[in-house]
Amino acid sequence: MIGQFDGHVPGAASDTSAPECAPERDGPLATRVNNGATPSVGIPRPGLAQQLHESLNNPNALPGYSVGPVIGEGGFCKVRLGTHLVSGEKVAIKVIDKTRLTDPTDRKRVAREIKVLKKLNQQSNIIRLLEVGEASSRIHVIMEHASGGTLLDHVRKKKRLPEPEARDCLRQILVGLTYCHAQGVIHRDIKLENLLLTADRQMKIIDFGLSAILVPGKKLRVHCGSPSYAAPEIVSRQLYDGPPVDVWSLGVVLFAMITGYLPFHASGSNKDELCQKIIAGVYKTPDWISDESKDLLRGMLTTDPRRRLTLEQVADHPWVRGKSVPCWRLPGLPTELECRPPLDPAILNCISKRIDTQSLSESILRGEHTYFTATYHLLATRAQSDRRRAYGEPDRPPLVAS
C-alpha cells in the first residue's frame, strides 16, 4: 500500500518563492451528516464494500486505481489517465519520479503545488486534489480529470471563441482566481495551457507549481511564468505585487480567446524583442472585436500595475457583466457550509467496511486527502451526476449570449 504523503519532498526547503521561469510550450470536530439526505442515485450499493476491499488489496503499483495512458508530461513527472475502481470515475494521476527531483527548485515546486492545492481544494473552478500517496521512488498526486482538454486546445480547434463564450470562460476564471487571492495565493502562471475544461464546459485552474503565498506588505521578487503571458514588472525584473500579475496574464488569455492569437509575439524566438513589446505594452486589437472588449483589454493590459484593473474591477466591467437582466455579478466567497456540504450517509456506509463511518466523516471534514476521502468524493460526484441525469438536468445551464 502506498503511504500517505507528509507534504515533505526530500531536500526541499520551506520557501514561498518559485523557480526562475517555467518552460513555455508552443502557442488542472463535530461530524455533520445529513441523515435526511436523498438516497444517492446510481451508486452500486450491492457488493460495493467488497469491491473496495478487493481494490485496496490489488498488487498493482497504485492500489484502488487502474492506470491508463500518458496524457501529459513534464521534466520530472508524467500525468496518466486513471480510473478509480470503486466509483468508475476518471482521474488524472500525476506520477512524480523522485529520483529525477535533483534540482532544489523542482523539489520546492512539487511541495508548493501540493500545499497550495490542499489550501484551495474547496473551490469548483480550481482542479480538485483527491489523494496524495508516496512510494519508494514515486509520489502520486491524484486529481479530478477534466475531460474537455485545455483552453488552448479549445481555442485552436475553434480558431477563436465568440465573445459570449469567452465571457463565460472569463467569468469562471475570475471566480477561481478571486478565491485564490482571498486565500493569499498568487498563481503566476495563468495561461491557456493551465486552464482546463470539463465535459460540461466548467473551467478548472491547474498547475500551481509557480504560485506564491502572499505576505502582507512584502513584494515578490522571483521572476517566473511563461514569457508571452508575463507582466511588464516581471520581464523587467522589478520587485512586484502579486495580484496585478495574475490580472495581466488573464488579460492575455482573454485577448487570445477572442482573437485566436497572443497579443505579444516576436519574430522567431527573439525573447528580447518579446520582452520589449511587453514592457512597452505594444499590441494591436483587430477591428472586428467589440469596443467594450477593447476597453476591458486596455484596463487589464495596462503596463503600470498601480493603474491596472483589479480582479473586482474586471468583474464589474460592462463587457463581463453582460446585458442580461439581472446582469452577472462576481459571487461572494463560499461559506464554510458551501465548502463542506452535509455528508451523504449512504455513501459513508458504502465505505464503512474498511474504515468506520465516524473516522471517515472526521477525515473528510478535516480536509484530508486519503484513498477513503477520495472514494467518498468520487462516489458523491457520480451520485450527483446520476441524479441530474435522472431528472433531466444539465450539469451547467446552456450558454446564452449575455
CATH superfamily of the domain at 151-321: Transferase(Phosphotransferase) domain 1
- Strand order, biggest sheet? 1-5-6-4-3-2
Instruction: Look at the structure and give the CATH class of the domain at 151-321.
Output: Mainly Alpha
The overall pLDDT, averaged over residues, is 83
Shape: globular
H/I helix tally: 14
What helical percentage do the residues reach? 25-40%
Element-level helix/strand string:
EHEEEHEEHHEEEEHHHHHHHHHH
Provide the CATH architecture of the domain at 151-321: Orthogonal Bundle
For the sheet with most strands, the description reads:
6 strands, antiparallel
Residue fraction in strands: 5-15%
Low-confidence stretches: 13-44, 397-402
Cα-atom radius of gyration: 22 Å
Q: From the helix content, strand content and strand pairing, which structural class follows?
A: alpha+beta
How many beta-strand segments?
A: 10
CATH topology of the domain at 151-321: Transferase(Phosphotransferase), domain 1
Rounded to the nearest angstrom, the distance between the terminal CA atoms is 51 Å
Write the SSE topology.
Layout lengths: L2 E2 L43 H9 L8 E9 L3 E8 L5 E8 L6 H16 L9 E6 L3 E7 L6 H8 L4 H20 L2 E2 L8 E3 L5 E3 L6 E2 L18 H4 L6 H18 L11 H10 L10 H10 L10 H5 L2 H4 L14 H4 L5 H7 L5 H9 L5 H20 L12
Antiparallel strand pairs: 1-5, 2-3, 3-4, 4-6, 5-6, 7-10, 8-9
Helix pairs in contact: 4-6
